[in-house]
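Sequence only, no structure available. Ideas?
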Amino acid sequence: MNDSNGGDDGNNASVARFYDQLAADYHLIYDDWDGSTERQGRALDTVIRSTLGPEPATVLDCACGIGTQAVGLALRGHRVTGTDISPAAAGRAGREAARRGLEMPVRAADMRALPFGEGSFDVVVCADNSLPHLLTDDDLLTALGEMRRVLRDGGLLLISTRPYDRIRRSRPVSTAPQLHGSGAGRTVTFQLWDWSEDGERYDLEHFQLIPADDDTGDDTGDDWRVEVRRTTYWALTERQLAALVTDAGFDGPAWRQPEDSGFFQPLLTARRHAAP
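Reply:
I predicted one. Tokens follow.
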């Protein structure tokens, strides 16, 4: 999922580095990444077809990461293009698509400067809490303006974030450790969150404990490789993000909760309509 604050080149580089470092191990966040890819693609496909009609759509996933949503949508028959701020993540997304026999162009690009012409896509997806890497109104509006620009008239915007309305009420300082896999293949993932004084932004440390490679052939899993990656998010409430989407020129922003959409995060939808 993956972009950064355009007002700070250092933060921009750090977000790209976060996902470059995570790209090879990203699938280990899931018990079954292939299954999650299929489920997320199915949920987004349902929203797209129920909004735009039954035909396959041209889709840009502008924060494609290693391809979780992009591959899932391509498997449902959509014509998907992927971009990501992380060259390593974008490269892996391309390989994951090729491994499944999918034609899915992928490139490294910043969502604030999308390398496509106006009206190129029916749908723009920015999922998996990617947009909150942008830390200012100006950067968010720039990115949303680019998403609107590359959408055709009547095109559909899909954004998902963490449930920040609930999260900001409690301001958690960590996530519970998650154990995935079993035996020598098990991995542990957890996060530490350090909230800023404004109560809206937080620095995140992402920990993964992964069984270390052992040249001796011993696969008991007694040794661990510990990976720590750091990044920053803006915990935007649903009202804040909907207002920014409206300010960027979209119509009818509306939120769908996981129990309604089948997607694992709250999902904002909005449309690009032609100016009168």
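The longest strand covers residues 201-211.
Hope that gets you unstuck.
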